Amino acid sequence: DKNGYEHYMLKEIHEQPHSIGDTFRGRISIDKTKIFLGGIIDVMPKLTQAKRIIIIACGTSWHAGLVGEYLFEEYARIPVEVEYASEFRYRNPIITPDDVIIAISQSGETADTLAAIKMAKKQGATIIGICNVVGSSIPRETHAGVYTHAGIEIGVASTKAFTSQVTVLTMMAFMIGRKRGTLYDELYKKLIHELTLVPEKIDIILKSENYIKGIAEMYKDATNALYLGRGCLFPVALEGALKLKEISYIHAEGYPAAEMKHGPIALIDQNMPVCVIATKDKSYEKIVSNIQEVKARNGIVIAIVTKGDETINNLANHVIEVPDCHESIAPLLTVIPLQIMSYYIALMRGCNVDQPRNLAKSVTVE
Ligand code: F6R
Q1: Taking the alpha carbons of 93, 96, 97, 99 in that order, is the dihedral positive or negative?
Q2: What are the subcellular locations of this protein (predicted)?
Q3: How far is ligand 1, taken at its centre, from the CA of residue 278, in Å?
Q4: Tally of CA atoms within 13 A in the half-sphere of 183 that contains its CB
Q5: Is 50 left (phi over 0), alpha (psi -120 to 50) or beta?
Q6: Beta strand 52-57 with 80-84: parallel, antiparallel or unpaired?
Q7: What confidence tens digit (pLDDT) does each residue in 343-354 have?
Q8: What is the C-alpha radius of gyration for the chain, rounded to an integer number of angstroms?
Q9: What are phi and psi of 223, to 5 degrees?
Q10: What is the per-residue pLDDT for 269?
Q11: In angstroms, what is the span from residue 60 Cα to ligand 1's centroid?
Q12: How do residues 75-106 score in pLDDT, each as one tens digit?
């Protein structure tokens, strides 16, 4: 049931204030001072003492894992590696019983992810799942786990499952950080509060849908696009590029903004839309200069900015505003306009948005 929407993808984009709420419901105390993830309580000693966390996933779930890497290292101070399941399983990785593996999968059925955790389990690692489909194969292979509770996702291009995965990883990073003492109480409470504000902030972003549709109309005939971000917004750039390519068949690449000058900058000309995720955080000044570099080569800049940003407004061709937030929360907000833009570009190109060619919702073959 599409609930009146033309496509499941659009319905699922709009569900995100609710689905994220469902992800943290019952897991954040009413007074917003504590996070409680029941599914990983038994492995908390393992997690807090882990020498290393290895996150394994594919596709969009791998992008969520990259956001997790930034958050775990920042707040829990545990080294993290993020691996494509298909590469990890075939390269004879070094795994010890002190390692904790986190497998992220919407479907819980992805063949490579499943095989990778079976292998790591044999070598003694502790396996934690972050999955959406209850009772699927991956949760049955893990020692512990947290369901994302995003609700069934039908559109092949993942939207609400991604934001719920990021929400779970954010809660885990804060909870482990607090337990390890790397995150002090005052900041912990502030961050929890920030997380609980995400649904209403996404509601505000969704009100820009028509404006974003207008931008989509201008660039629907592009043949290439570049997405740039820094820090935990670099994975959002990757995710924006993946959303565009998988449903609109436009070639798109995501890059860490500073890497641009090591190659991709050669591609920039007056026909190249460059989406820059540039909300106010500790790398803001740097990303402003990356925008100037693109403009100096006549590139078209579509910037995702914090509400009221005058500096970038004066530089970019278009700005899409998101409400002010703590930088740890920004991935959850900034991905929303990118999902909407991809949706409308695909729609205007006459693509089958919910069932893109060559793709399947669950990849049970390797
Ligand atoms: C992208 C997409 C795929 C999946 C990937 C992993 O929109 O849907 O890239 O993210 O196939 O699937 P799961 O999360 O089910 O393991």
Answers
A1: negative
A2: Cytoplasm
A3: 26
A4: 27
A5: beta
A6: parallel
A7: 999 999 999 998
A8: 20
A9: -105, -15
A10: 93
A11: 5
A12: 999 999 999 999 999 999 999 999 999 999 99
- Return the structure tokens found at 274: 């460059």
Among positive and negative, which fits the CA dihedral 305, 308, 311, 314? Answer: positive
Residue ranges lining ligand 1, Cβ < 6 Å: 58-61, 105-107, 110, 113, 156-158, 242, 246, 362-363
- Say if CB 200 and CB 21 are below 8 A apart: no
Among protein residues, the one with the nearest Cα to ligand 1's atom 16 is: 105
Rounded distance, CA 326 to CA 228, Å?
20
Residues of the chain with pLDDT under 70: none
Q: Is the ipTM of this complex over 0.90?
A: yes
Task: Please give the DSSP secondary-structure letter assigned to residue 302.
Answer: E
Taking the C-alpha atoms of residue 204 and residue 337, their distance in angstroms, rounded to an integer, is: 11
Query: Ligand 1 centroid to 129 CA: how many Å?
Result: 15
17 touches 336 (CB < 8 A): no
- Ligand 1 atom nearest residue 57's Cα: 16
Neighbours of 251 (CB within 10 A): 13
pTM, full prediction: 0.98
CA of 4 to the centre of ligand 1 (A): 25
Strand order in the sheet with 300-306: 251-256, 224-229, 273-277, 300-306, 318-322
- State the closest ligand 1 atom to the C-alpha of 361, by its place in the atom list counted from 1: 8
Structure tokens at 358: 């060559």
User: Which residue lies with its CA nearest to atom 9 of ligand 1?
Assistant: 59
Place of tokens 């028509």: 210
Does the active-site annotation cover 32? no
Ligand 1 atom 5 nearest Cα: 59
- What one-character DSSP code corresponds to residue 41? G
Instruction: Name the strand (E) or helix (H) holding 104.
Output: strand 99-105
Residue 211 near residue 29 (C-beta atoms within 8 A): no
Beta bridge partners of 45: none
State both tokens at 64: 């969520």
DSSP percent split of the chain into helix, strand, coil, nearest 5: 50, 15, 35
